[in-house]
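Field reference: sequence -> structure
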Amino acid sequence: MPPATTPLPVDGASVTQFDRFGDSRGYFNELYNEAKYDEALHQDWKQVSFSSSGKHALRGLHCSPYGKFITCVRGSFYDVIADFREGSPTFGRWCGVLLTEHNKKQVYVPARCGHGFFTFEDNTCALYLQEGTFNPVNEADNHPFDPLFDVQWPVPPGVTPVMSPKDTAAPTLAVRRPHLTTATKRGRILVIGASGQVGGAVLEAFGPTNCIGTYSSTPVQGMVPFDLAKCAMNPALAVELLQTTFPTVVCICAGFTWVDGCENKPSHANFMNAAGPANVAAAAKELGIKTVWYSTDYVFDGAAGPYAETDAPSPLNVYGSSKLSG
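Structure field:
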């Protein structure tokens, strides 16, 4: 399988999943191959860098005038991208991806975005492909706890992250750009199914700058892919989505609403309308995130006229029963 690259919530950023081949000796994998990797990653790489960090090290947020492609080759870290580009549609937004030596993921950081990571293990090593060569004059460090971004670094309770004096003393973006002094941080509302009618209305109500939307099949600019049906079979997909977006609230607006289709595909209806949302809610609860599930209500038979709260649910079809199960 060729490496699969999907967009992240920061415009131009992406995460790539690659294959690994192993036997009794160990394993082999390519970290980049122009003939196989996504066209967006076909860059003129000019420098290869390597870092080694101890446990609970925090590096960043570092801003370079060139893009970077990051791979964890040993240990594990939470990799963060923050959009410093004022002309970008996602300016002020950040996202994070867990990179480990085992999960076979790589992250692309666009030029002029902030980048940093927090390590979970000793001897954690990162490999960088860079579109440009390092020149201190062109680099701009930003404080990792800048309130304009409010990155939710996964620092365990009671732990003080290990930072360099340079990162500790780094200014916030508003210090570098005084016109941002009165700027407010973006909201972080995750709208699953934002490409649909209900999700689109929720996104409009809260304002696109305060929301991160998902689509299931047809790509939508500014949104990230997520499939509730696949999540029903693989709960880890919900965890990955929430760890990447780290919302304050997740609004589940997606579902299988084609009534006749539900009759023909009852298992898919239950995946989309019950099991998938349940897995998202469970993952959100573990992370302390509130879940709101939007659903039309077709679970009452209506034989006695308009239903009351005391009516017993009696769905007449698969659509209704899958919603009731949800």
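Note: The chain has two domains: 4-180, 189-325.
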